[in-house]
Every structure is written in C-alpha cells, then in structure tokens.
Amino acid sequence: MPVADYKMYCKMLERAREGHFAYPAINVTSLTTANAVLKGLAESKSDGIIQVSTGGGTFASGSSVKDMALGAISIAEHVHRAAERYPIYVALHTDHCQADKLDKLVIPLVEETERRRAAGRPNLFNSHMFDGSALPLKENLDIAVKLLERFQKNDLVLEIEAGVVGGEEDGVSGEAGAKLYTTPEDTLEVARRLNSIKGSRYLLAATFGNVHGVYKPGQVKLKPSILKDCQDAVVKQYGETARFYLVFHGGSGSELRDIHEAIDYGVVKMNIDTDTQYAFTRPIADHMLKHYDGVLKVDGEVGNKKTYDPREYLGLAEASMAARVKQAVQDLKGVGTTMYKK
Ligand SMILES: [Zn+2]
C-alpha cells in the first residue's frame, strides 16, 4: 500500500486508542533498516510508523553532505516507492527535533511537502516531532502553536513533548529529576493552547519515568498512572474530544505490564530505536566472529568474497531487525490490526 494519507493516519491513531493497541515507530537510517521495518510490519499484518531522527537524516545523506533534511527526504522517497509492495499502511514521521534544529529538519521538510501539495502530489511525511521539552513550557508551546497552525494547513500531525525523557538520544541528554514526570497542570496547558487550533491533530509525548537508551530490567521505574492522571484532568476540563493521543518514548527494557498499562491510558505510538539497533547488529557480530578468516585476509590468504560481501551480513541484519519489529507489534497488541483490505 502507499504511505498512509492524513485521513488514513488519523484513522490509524483513533483505531489504536479505541482498540487498546499501539503502533511501533521505528527509527531507520538506511534503505536496509527501512526495508526491515516494512518486512516486520507486513509479516505481522500491522500498520506502523517509520521515523527518521536528526542524526539518522544526517547519516542517510552521506558523510560528505551531512544534510539531515536531504537524508530524511531520501529515506521517505524510498519508503513511498517500496511501501506500494506491502499489504499494510505505513506512516512517515521525524523524531526529536529541538528548537535550534527546526530550520535544518522540520521546516525544510514542511516546505518540501508544501511544494508537493502545490503540484498535486501526496505529502512527503505524515508527522513531525518538535521537542521543546528542554525549554520552559510557555516557550515550548509558543513554538508548537506556530508549527501546528502551519501543519493544520498541510494535513500534517505534530508531536510535542512536555516533561523530559531521561537518558541519551542522538547525543542529547535529558536530565534526571522532577521533570521526568509530566504533570496534569502541564498537560492542561498543552490542551488549552493547542486545542484552540481547529481541525488540527497532535500527539503528546508525556513522560512518566521513561528513559532513552537501554537499562537492565527493573532499573527503569515507570509510573504509567501519571498518564491516566493527565487524561482524566484534560477530559474533566475540556471534555472527551480533548483526550490525548500519547507517545511512549524511551521504552527499551520496560516491563510488558507497564507497556500495556500505558496503552490502556491512551498511548498509540511507541518509539523503538535501541532494541532494533541491537537486533540489527547482533547477527553481524555473529557473522564476523564465525567467519573471521573469510571476512579478513589472514596470514597472506585472500579471505572469502562471499562472506565479506555486505549483502551477506546486511541481509542477516535485515531479517533480525524485522523479527524484532514483529516482537514489538506483538508487545503492543497490534498483530493482525492492519486497515489494509485486499
Ligand atoms: Zn524519544
């Protein structure tokens, strides 16, 4: 199927919230990792989200160019073409973009979508995250409001974050402390500011003790009940239509029961990067260790071309990452939920 359009994407999000499941949103940095996600989703009969970070876009553009928007466009163009061959819907999203990087990633991508729309072509991306969580809430929301007004005109969904996710992602570290937990007061302010933009749609990454990166089981203390408190407060103040579509960041190493509880409180998108990075690299390490005298020219020998052909080990990596995507779909209770009909 082609990449989901705005209507289909909104329907995906609504169905997930009503049906108590969530979409994996997997970070990709190359054709191979994007293909792995499409394979894993299709084999799970689940729709899903492919996302590109600032660092992922930079990497995909090539080390001589280092243009995060260009790399993100290249990946998105590939997904638009390849997704046609899979019996599922996929949405394209960009991950964390701090205020100082908006002009390098989100704005050029919105401009690209505006050019495409003017030419009668579909949007390039479905949604973009603006991460203003390091700013005071008012500044965060001032920027978010401006973006959402422009997004609304272009059938784009905005993701914002209130409260800081701990840990490190793409070299940006979150601080530990009280802001690891979003408060109902914060989210009421989010709703007050953003819900005034009629006909718009946004996702909220609220934080409930989640951390980026990987931790041993038991080290991450999640409090999913915080999400319920935020939903209850916003529905009480503004009515059922204000209920949030929530995003779960930094979920590696989380207990399954915490993930399921978070889904019950309205999480519809769970970001996955660390776990799929490991799944990609694991079989490559295995291949290199098993075939060291094939991938290396040892003691004047010539090695074995078949084992050092990158297709050999990247193919194993693609299959392993696809399997991890399938596990994610299962964990998020999304198996068989695709809206695609033959
Ligand atoms: Zn994140």
Could you please describe the fold and organization of this structure?
Helix content is 47%, strand content 13%. The protein is built from 13 helices and 10 strands. Helix 2 (31-44) crosses helix 13 (310-331), helix 6 runs parallel beside helix 7 (184-194) and helix 10 (274-290) packs antiparallel against helix 13. The longest helix has 22 residues, at 310-331. It is globular and about 75 Å long. 46% of the residues are buried. It binds zinc ion (ZN). Residues 96, 165, 169, 212, 249-250, 271 line the site of zinc ion.
List keywords for this structure.
single chain, alpha/beta, 13 helices, eight-stranded parallel β-sheet, 342 residues, binds zinc ion, 13% strand, 10 strands, two-stranded antiparallel sheet
What's the short version?
The chain has 342 residues and is α/β, with parallel strands linked by helices. It contains 13 helices and 10 strands.
Instruction: Give the CA-based shape.
Output: globular
Distance between the terminal alpha carbons, to the nearest Å? 10 Å
Largest sheet: 8 strands, parallel
Which blocks of ≥5 consecutive residues have pLDDT under 50? none
Mean pLDDT: 94
Query: Using only CA atoms, what is the Rg?
Result: 20 Å
Strand content: 5-15%
What's the number of helices? 13
The strand line-up of the biggest sheet is 8-5-4-3-2-1-10-9
Element string (H = helix, E = strand)? HEHEHHEHEHEEEHEHEHEHHHH
DSSP strand tally: 10
The molecules bound to the chains, other than polymers, are: zinc ion
Percentage of residues assigned to helices: 40-55%
- Summing up helix and strand content along with how strands pair, one would put the structural category as alpha/beta
